[in-house]
Amino acid sequence: MLKIIFAVIGRDLKLAMRRQADIVSALFFFVIVVSLFPLGIGPEPDLLRKLAPGVLWVAALLATMLSLPRLFADDHRDGTLEQLALAPHPLGLVVTGKVIAHWLVSGLPLALIAPVLGVQFDLTGDGLFVLTAAILLGTPALSGIGAIGAALTLGLRGGGVLLSLLVLPLYIPVLIFGAGAVDATVSGLGGEGHLSLLAAMTFASLGFAPWASAAALKIALE
Amino acid sequence: MKDRFNLYRFASPATFYPLAGTLIPYFAAIAVLFGIAGLYLGMLVAPTDFQQGEGYRIIFIHVPASWMSMFIYLVMAFWAAIGLAFNTRLSGMMAQALAPTGALMAFLSLWTGALWGKPMWGTWWVWDARLTSELILLFLYIGYMALTAAIDDPRRADKAGGLLLLVGVVNIPIIYFSVKWWNTLHQGSSVNLTKSSMATTMLYGMLLMAMCFWMYSIAVALMRVRTIMLERERNADWVKAELAGDVQ
Amino acid sequence: MLEADNLECVRGERRLFAGLGFKLEAGELLYLQGRNGAGKTSLLRMIIGLLPPEAGEIRWKGQSIRRNSEDFRADLCYLGHLNAIKEELTPLENLLASAHLADEALSEDDALDALEQVGLAGREDLACKYLSQGQKRRVALARLVKERRPLWVLDEPFVALDVAAVDWLAGIISGHLQRGGLAVMTTHQLVAIPAGTVRELKLS
Predict the structure, then answer these.
(1) What 3-state DSSP class applies to C5?
(2) H or E element, residue C32
(3) How far apart are the C-alpha atoms of B47 and C93, rounded to whole Å?
(4) What single Pfam family name could you report for this chain, choosing any that match (chain C) (predicted)?
(5) Residue B199 located in a structural domain
(6) Looking at the DSSP assignment, which residues form a beta bridge with residue C64?
(7) Which of A217, B132, C29, C63 could covalently link to C68 via disulfide, CB atoms 3.0 to 4.6 Å apart?
């Protein structure tokens, strides 16, 4: 069971490494969107500190959306998706591997660069740490839920826009608790509760989403 | 296969189409009766609220619309589950026929909520937990309709839409509680929608209006499902016979 | 081994076929024939279990393929009209990755040997995006060289191959049939397969 998951992760990471431009552009998209906000609302540190969690999280949602349409589309176009669906394992395991690989190339880089952007928004110490932890814990759920949308919109016209329409409402809980964790830390309430809820959402979505995505993929492959 | 046979026949469009046609006038008539009774109670009999004046009477539209918007989503998810489990054609059509009515109810609830909010809170929109959840519900309806509209093959549209509905139903409680929790954290409890002392006439009025909306939804959904059936099965013999009959 | 009963296929509003059945035993080859749009590819997709039939059932070793889908897929090798190779990977990596994901044991030596047989010796380490269409098709076909699963389902395997490659592929399929394998394929050009019993199924 783990073998197939690792095999898929290995293959997808290898492919991503040969197309590094995609990873880098999603990352720069994140950086640019976040950097635009101070220009739009002014440089007051107090205001920026208050906005930081929300801005960073919304930008993280959008950056994740950017890479989602290709999660299955490339494999669909060249026929490898059919082969994956015909492999003698449950398709849900294959999707689990793809979701983890997607997180490693989209969510993880966001979490690594988030502290730098947090500094731009005058976050300090604990706030920065919790911001990174929250993005680290929350983004796997984004990849998982996003996989369902990517599978449902596979091969449709206007798939990318449709995908955001389907997926963004489902991202709201992650946004609320992710930004809430940083908010609570900055205001001195402690963000542990939020972080554990985020972790719970991530585990729930990693358990549930791959199977829903697999069902959607089978519908798309008919 | 044997046990499925009956289900197929029962859910067959050719059998359901005339049945729906017979039922629609009854549901429409009941909706009108409940509507008259509910509006009479709500507008004329129910006492003027000592805090909110006459403006509160919009809840006779607002509350039933919110109830129906949530209820219709559940009914759609129910049809989706049946459709995915038994592969019946009718279930997907029912879900698709209900979606615009559900979206309309969600929109109505938001609109009347804004109309109510202006005199009560002095602003058209507040990020109240219920209003926010209702807005997200409207997004879910729109997402469902956009997805089914984007898929050309009706059977695939039914299945994909059904799956989305089931995912949505699992997520709705999570979304609702996170929004509620977010709201209490950010707003305190300065806004309280429900007045604890609701007059019984008000309650009856709302229930009557809810029945009216319910019957209306059924009637409209049946009309829409008949159209969907004709469109999808336009090459089937029974549709040709039906259309030929209409021309004469 | 492979049986189909009373299959019915509806795509969109059209009924492509109904009441279709066949039986295939070890060492036999089934040719699916018919004009474009007759439902050949749909039937293939039913046989591999991706498309549920409107009515009827397909059985492998007496078991419904939809109920025992994982056991069935462990016996199945499918080659579609898409090559199922990754442009960014080299032919060698492609072969190894697809074997790995399909849970097949394939050593690097075997893979190199297979690539040599399809005439790609010396190109093992070149990313597939630099290969020609014909060469990409050969990478896909190289999978069959070491393939020992009993049921092969091939969609238009001879398309875009030169004469020598057609003969080579016919030889590979004969070898498979001689080992007691089964094959189902669609094709426009009838290619003589030296070994095995050939059955034909015409879709109209």
Answers:
(1) strand
(2) strand C28-33
(3) 78
(4) ABC_tran
(5) yes
(6) C59
(7) C63
Instruction: Name B188's Cβ contacts closer than 8 Å, sequence gap at least 6.
Output: none
Number of domains present in the structure of chain C: 2
Q: Which residues of B touch C52 (CB under 8 A)?
A: 87
pLDDT confidence tier of residue B99, bands split at 50, 70 and 90: very high
Q: Which of C110, C126, C143 is the last residue of a domain?
A: C143
Output the six-digit token pair for A72. 């299955």
For residue range C185-195, what is the model confidence (pLDDT) as tens digits? 888 777 777 77
Domain encompassing residue A113 = 2-221
CB contact under 8 A, C88 and A18: yes
Instruction: Judge whether A141 and A205 are in contact, CB under 8 Å.
Output: yes
Of B164, B170, B178, the CB nearest to A176: B178
Backbone angles phi, psi at B47, to 5 degrees: -70, 155
Determine whether the interchain pair A169/B174 forms a contact, defined as Cβ–Cβ distance below 8 Å: no
Q: Which tens digit of pLDDT belongs to each residue from B4-46? A: 445 555 567 778 888 888 889 999 999 999 999 988 888 888 7
Tens digits of per-residue pLDDT, B34-77? 999 988 888 888 777 666 677 778 888 888 999 999 999 999 99
Of B166, B171, B185, the CB nearest to A170: B171
Report how far residue B238's alpha carbon sits from residue B242's, in angstroms, rounded to the nearest whole number: 6
Based on the domain organization, do C109 and C56 belong to the same domain?
Answer: no
Residue B38 belongs to domain spanning:
23-230
As a whole number of angstroms, the distance between CA B27 and CA B104 comes to 19
**Are C153 and C114 found together in one domain?**
no
C48 CB near a chain A CB, below 8 Å?
yes
Which stretches within B87-199 are classed as H helix? 89-121, 129-150, 154-187
**d(CA B143, nearest CA chain A) in Å:** 5
| Low-confidence winner among B70-74, B99-103, C20-24, C121-125 (lowest mean pLDDT) | C121-125
The percent of residues in chain C predicted with pLDDT above 90, rounded, is: 8
Q: How far is CA B129 from the centre of its chain?
A: 20
Domain boundary residue, one of C127, C143, C159: C143
Q: Structure pTM?
A: 0.89
Residue B237 lies in a domain: no
A187 neighbors B188 (Cβ within 8 angstroms)? no
Q: Which residues form the domain of C197?
A: 1-75+149-204
> Using CA atoms, how far apart are residues A151 and B240, in angstroms rounded to an integer?
37
